[in-house]
Specification:
0% strand, MetI-like fold, mainly alpha
Length: 281
């Protein structure tokens, strides 16, 4: 009971500290903007640890963060192999192929109106299909190695990327397009010099959405067949063995990989679209 009281007291103290920092004079500084979420995350971990220890929660229900971290550091070689199989081979390759194909298709859809009328409704239908239904089919088609996981990722990221890119290519105003025609620019010069730059925020929005979808798709696909490695494979087998600390260790790896992947795309967006109002301070 003392640990439960300590957890409650710690939560209240950190809540007050964070509220004071977020509303203080230096709230808009970079240091405070990084410190506030760091304190909040640390608070959750400490409270989690104290509650699990104080209430004596069994490992099979919820392991403490210290147990998860101990498992994480003791299984680094296994986690690294799983990361390579799931992220580097399945998720990343599928992401590149799916987003690249979606971008090229978006240019064709923008160029030819009949594709817009015929393909986008089909895309909305395919995007609504549940992954647990399509993943087993693709695994049977492409085998149990990373190729089938990449295929699942392609299906998941293709249409969100396509829809965002098509919307971005239509972002320019009629006055801007008329000005390009006044200068004698045809479709392709107008596309490369006006419409693609204007569509960059939409394209990066599709890329950022696809980062999370790619990792989720690769992990879920591994539930339906995989070599003896991979994050999804390890999670499913560890659940069957009641090794919940290993499950949470894999979740930590997935969270770190997904956050880093999203961060890299966001940094690229900031560098390439610095001129856009959304990136100005």
């Amino acid at each position: 009971m003392s640990m439960v009281i300590a957890a409650l007291g710690f939560w209240i103290a950190m809540w007050a500290l964070n509220r004071r920092l977020a509303n203080g004079a230096g709230a808009n500084t970079r240091f405070i903007q990084l410190l506030v979420p760091a304190i909040f995350g640390l608070t959750i971990l400490v409270v989690w640890e104290l509650l699990v220890r104080g209430l004596e929660v069994p490992l099979v229900i919820l392991p403490a963060p210290s147990q998860v971290m101990a498992k994480f550091f003791s299984e680094i070689p296994t986690l690294w192999l799983d990361f390579q199989q799931t992220f580097l081979k399945g998720a990343l390759s599928g992401y590149v192929m799916g987003c690249g194909a979606a971008f090229l298709m978006a240019v064709l859809v923008d160029r030819y109106d009949f594709l817009k009328r015929g393909l986008l409704p089909v895309g909305n239908f395919v995007a609504a299909l549940p992954i647990v239904g399509t993943a087993p089919i693709l695994v049977m088609w492409f085998g149990f190695d990373w190729q089938s996981k990449a295929a699942v990722v392609v299906v998941m990221v293709f249409f969100p990327m396509l829809v965002n890119t098509v919307a971005g290519l239509q972002e320019t105003t009629s006055m801007q397009r008329d000005l390009m025609r006044t200068y004698g620019a045809g479709y392709w010069p107008s596309l490369t010099k006006l419409r693609l730059p204007a569509a960059m925020p939409f394209i990066f929005n599709g890329l950022k959405i696809s980062t999370t979808l790619a990792l989720i798709g690769a992990i879920v696909a591994e539930f339906f067949g995989s070599p003896t490695m991979g994050m999804g494979f390890r999670i499913s087998t560890s659940v069957g063995q009641l090794a919940l600390d290993m499950v949470w260790a894999e979740i930590v790896v997935a969270a770190l990989a997904g956050s880093a992947f999203y961060g890299v795309v966001a940094m690229a967006e900031k560098r390439l679209t610095f001129w856009h109002p959304s990136q100005r301070k």
